[in-house]
Design a protein that fits this description.
The protein is built from twelve helices and 23 strands. It is of the alpha/beta class. Helix 5 packs parallel to helix 6 and helix 9 packs across helix 10.
């Protein structure tokens, strides 16, 4: 009897091929062919065989099901990170941690492992580093513990079997792109290997109630590398963002089956590892100089209000096409706001190079930053300053109108706490602390002096 040959199925169009190619010949999509079950020698396909071998499920009434949150959660040494995770690592859950190379993923995980190892059995598995390299990091962070074990492996089969043993309560796998299964011929990091290794590890974690953290790589654009199905398989997806050379670093959940995705933890790197920043507003404004182009924004990261400095610089362009550069702010949004400024006010920006910077390495995803960005640009172009005791927040529409934003009370409370006297904000907010504004042009005339 001839040996069964592997088949490859396109995840986009569903066509099946006898060999793997980088591009699907049918739909022309790249990297979509995944190794699937072969056709059986007897002439029956795998689907009909699976239908015969299935059995009726054991069902229970939903009232008799114990909620997952009733299980024990493994706390971390960082209170804010516990909030991001929904209260800590839930036993039996699988968390996917992603971030740029050098951002501090391994440092963060080693600190978490050392803390959990005080009361639980912990295993750190690395497919990228040797035992000696991990030992040096553990010594630097003071993470040595009797209950913290280490293993170096790139075999998905061996790692799954180790998790199934039930000897460990918390397991870290660093990283999924280095693993491979012996049954699949493709190279580590491929779509088939990442999907199947992830699936096998998840099954092992669920069967033994082991909390597992999987480290994932990112692409040049900063998105999670590998198949999108990996994000669907895991319970929690956590993204580690920030400047790896300095500034603050943020950890936020972009998927969480056991908690909110609106929380954020803010860290800074020190010689002894990552440390939580309890009052980021004070740290971000400590070295501020009130110059033209400098505006204080009252923003919200998750549910935490933060005051950050927005800096803008405008110079006369030396070429026919003006340059627009943004750090910590969406470039397309910056171009849109510049267009609104040109159309709705008397500012002429077509011959100005404009550079925008959010101090401290913070990346803003808040629409309430629009008004602060517009005032910073106008201040830089006109060479005028805003009152140093004012904070700013508000969304700017295409008609130049200033619109309301979410959580205004928290923004105002944070500004009061740090000694600011007023907030330039949308007129819909009824508070004596607020200087109400409705129109972008009138705001520039009255307040940028």
């Amino acid at each position: 009897m001839a040996k069964n040959r592997a088949q490859y199925t396109c995840s986009e169009c569903g066509m099946t091929f006898s060999k793997w190619t980088g591009q699907c010949p049918n739909c022309s999509n790249w990297n979509t062919l995944v190794e699937t079950l072969p056709v059986e020698a007897e002439g029956k396909n795998a689907l009909s065989s699976a239908k015969v071998s299935g059995k009726k499920l054991d069902v229970v009434n939903i009232k008799n099901v114990t909620p997952s949150d009733a299980k024990e959660r493994l706390k971390t040494p960082f209170l804010d990170l516990d909030e991001v995770l929904g209260g800590g690592f839930l036993k039996g859950s699988v968390t996917l941690l992603t971030g740029q190379p050098g951002i501090g993923k391994s440092t963060l995980l080693m600190q978490i492992c050392a803390y959990i190892a005080k009361e639980h059995q912990v295993l750190y598995i690395s497919g990228e580093e040797s035992a000696g390299q991990v030992k040096l990091r553990a010594v630097r962070l003071g993470a040595e513990s009797e209950k913290l074990s280490f293993a170096s492996s790139t075999s998905g089969n061996d790692i799954a079997k180790t998790i199934e043993s039930g000897d460990f309560d918390f397991v870290v796998v660093d990283s999924i792109q280095t693993l491979s299964l012996a049954e699949i011929a493709s190279a580590p990091g491929g779509v088939s290997q990442v999907t199947n290794c992830g699936n096998l590890i998840i099954r092992s974690a669920k069967s033994t109630d082991t909390a597992v953290v999987i480290v994932g790589h990112v692409t040049k654009e900063g998105t999670l590398a590998g198949p999108k199905v990996l994000e669907h398989l895991v319970d929690v997806v956590v993204n580690f963002e920030g400047d790896r050379y300095g500034g603050f670093k943020t950890v936020r959940a972009i998927k969480n089956r056991f908690g909110s995705t609106s929380e954020v933890a803010i860290f800074e790197m020190a010689n002894t590892g990552l440390k939580e920043v309890k009052n980021p507003s004070e740290a971000l404004l400590a070295e501020r100089q009130n110059t033209d182009g400098s505006i204080i924004l009252a923003t919200v990261e998750g549910t935490r209000p933060i005051l950050v400095e927005i800096q803008a610089l405008a110079t006369k362009t030396n070429f026919g096409y003006p340059n627009r550069t943004a750090s910590g702010f969406d470039l397309n949004r910056l171009k849109l706001l510049i267009a609104v400024l040109e159309r709705r006010t008397k500012l002429k920006l077509s011959e100005q190079d404009i550079f925008l910077n959010v101090v401290g390495g913070i990346k803003l995803n808040d629409s309430g930053a629009d008004l602060a960005v517009c005032l910073a640009i106008a201040s830089a172009v006109a060479g005028r300053k805003l009152n140093e005791d004012y904070v700013v927040f508000g969304e700017v529409g295409l008609g130049g109108e200033v619109r309301s934003v979410f959580r205004p009370d928290q923004r105002i409370a944070e500004a009061k706490k740090l000694g600011f006297t007023h907030a330039i904000a949308p007129a819909s907010i009824k508070d004596k602390f607020v200087i109400p504004v409705k129109d972008l042009r009138q705001t520039l005339i009255e307040h940028v002096k």
